Description:
Elements: E1 2-6, H1 13-28, E2 33-43, E3 46-58, H2 71-82, E4 89-93, E5 107-113, H3 119-135, E6 139-144, E7 150-157, H4 159-164, H5 169-181, E8 183-190, E9 193-199, H6 209-213, E10 216-218, E11 224-226, E12 231-238, E13 244-245, E14 248-257, H7 263-274, E15 281-285, H8 287-318, H9 322-328, H10 331-345, H11 351-380, H12 385-415, H13 422-457, H14 463-473
Helix pairs in contact: 8-9, 8-11, 9-11, 9-13, 10-11, 10-13, 11-12, 11-13, 12-13
Amino acid sequence: IFANTQLPPGASRERTLEVMKQVEAHFMADPDVESVVSVLGFSFAGAGQNAALNFISLKDWDERKGEDHGSAAIAQRGLKALGKVRDANILALNPPPIRELGNATGFAVRLQDRAGVGYDALLAARNQLLGMAMKSPVLNRVRPDGLEDAPQLKLEIDRDKAQALGVSFDAVNGVLSTALGSSYVNDFPNQGRLQRVIVQADAPFRTQPEDILNLNVPNGQGTPVPLSSFVKTSWIVGPMQAVRYNGYLAQRIAGEAAPGYSTGDALAEIEKLAAKLPPGFSIEWTGQSREEKLSGATATILLAFSMLAVFLCLAALYESWAIPLAVMLVVPLGVLGALLGVTIRGLPNDVYFKVGLITIIGLSAKNAILIIEFARELHQEGRNLYDSALAACRLRFRPIVMTSAAFILGVLPLLLASGAGSASQRAIGTGVVGGMITATVLAVYLVPVFFVVIGRIFPLKQKEEREANLEETG
Length: 474
């Protein structure tokens, strides 16, 4: 898991280091943590001396039994304990389920200024959205995902005076870059090693605005000119980052769904709240949230095409449109069981559950085929629809129960999975097992009914009629 630390703007490196040590001490005291690697000066929000990031490695799954020792529980304990640190905002985060699609679990959104109203209006709209999100029961831990505005020292250069003194902007930039940052000069050999020469103003001579004004800049003739002769300083508050998304000025926002709600509910709630913002502002999803929105719109189409593919294969097999229809009527029974299963266990409607639904379509149709295939043959031999369906149900009852029980027992490890990756396994296993139970139990009673009803609406030809038609065609 990660611990993302953000101190107030302008906080010193030493202050950030003290907070980072508190984070390390907390997690190293947790018996489920193996090690902690800390990075000072960088976080998911950005780079700065008021930012830090901790990588917390957990012990092996075999040493962490139970949900209280999982990564989510460890992160929650860290969030609760470190929330008491007054100097910083510390978030314990789980990594995203798909690498490179975000920095943590939850959603990621960009608030865009599409009307060009300016940074101040965008910041006000972001704060308004965060305020509405804090009051929503659907959302949790909604936060700005970036560095906040910080005090900045503004240098106002009198261009006329600088030109009169023969000082160029390149010279001013070079002196400031070297004194406040650093500048590489050359390399020199020292005791068999090649070492670099880095030039920078000493710390006591670059801490106050007056120290900057005391710096000298060479003019065109090489004569040093103090900055104070043509530069004035003033303190302002300005952005630490220039965030753009799709070419628009933007603000980064991240958050999670509240307990009991899915990520889909959270995305819908954010869109609902964003619609209340002033004109000119809109949101765009990014990372995993964007992929979820795109894939969620195709889930219904995918299931429909799956059922259509099964229907067309059955129509080609039986050379009939009526028999495949009787088979496909059992599919809603399997879907009903899958929905009941995930509802009882409190699992979300995620991509893994949709994979289970596609599996249930084929498995439900398989049980129906076992009954309808025999009923069709008996009906072609001259029996009526009712007797054919009843006899086929008796003949195929044991094979249906045995094959379904064998499949359910085979999927049972997915249903009871634990450890790394168990969430996806439980989602698939719960949907498939629930769907198979209802498809097996209800199919024995309802598939014969479907066969009789469809046979009466669309009369099925018996064997003698088919042979007569073939002779007439020949």
